[in-house]
Amino acid sequence: MAKYPKFLMEHFQNPRNVGEIPDADGVGTVGNASCGDIMQMFIKVNGDKIVEAKFKTFGCGAAIATSSILTERIKGMTVDEALKISDETSREVLSQLPKEKVPCFTLAMDALKLAIEECRCKLAGIHDKGGFDSTKLEKD
Ligand code: FES
Question: Is the minimum distance from the CB of 63 to ligand 1 under 6 angstroms?
Answer without folding.
Answer: yes
